[in-house]
Amino acid sequence: MTDLPDSQLIALARNTNAEAFELLIRRHGHAAAGLIRRMTPDPHEAEDVLQETLLQAWRRLEQLEAPERFVGWLVQIARNQCRMRLRRRIPEVALPDIPEPRPRVGRLGRGTADSHAEQLDKVLEALNGLAGDDAHTARLFYLAGLSIREVAEATASPEGTVKRRLHSARNRIRDTLRKEGNP
User: Fold this and answer.
1) Segment 29-48, tens digit of pLDDT
2) How confident is the model at residue 101 (pLDDT cuts 50, 70, 90)?
3) Where are the alpha helices (DSSP H) in the chain?
4) Angle 128-133-138 (CA atoms, 0-180°, nearest 5)?
5) Strand partners of residue 109
6) What is the pLDDT of residues 10-26, one digit of tens each?
7) How big is the chain by its Cα radius of gyration, in Å?
8) Which of 38, 67, 152, 158 could form a disulfide with 10 if both were Cys (CB 3.0 to 4.6 A apart)?
């Protein structure tokens, strides 16, 4: 069986032939394992992610449309498993307590501090109204104070993706504030 091409091994594995699947993993599993080791520095966690990757590949083998792309398909499953593990590890960022500003009399009069506090409340409300990856990225960057690099590491995303998400979040907040009649 070791001399069979991948396409035949995949066909056998789809018919629940565990030995054929094992041969496929021996041939190509190193690609997924290498990616997992790079994305998951803890060796014990990396082993768990690898096991979950192999289990998902076994369960989803019927979904593989192009047997010649088995390696890329397996690596993508590994990448997704790593990302899911990272997302579970990152707690949702709670909004920090922002103290009420004390009324002050400045150059522009008493209403200045109150006006800024109201604007801040509206921005935070608009940020809370966001959902998805853009919102999570914006909270990590603006509220948790993480740098772009730290947000990229925490979300297992490239820095360019983090910048795009922040840009998108800012635009959505700006649109929300305009709709509500705020400058």
Assistant:
1) 998 998 898 888 788 999 99
2) very low
3) 6-14, 18-39, 43-59, 70-89, 111-128, 132-138, 148-155, 159-179
4) 50
5) 106
6) 999 999 899 999 999 99
7) 24
8) 67
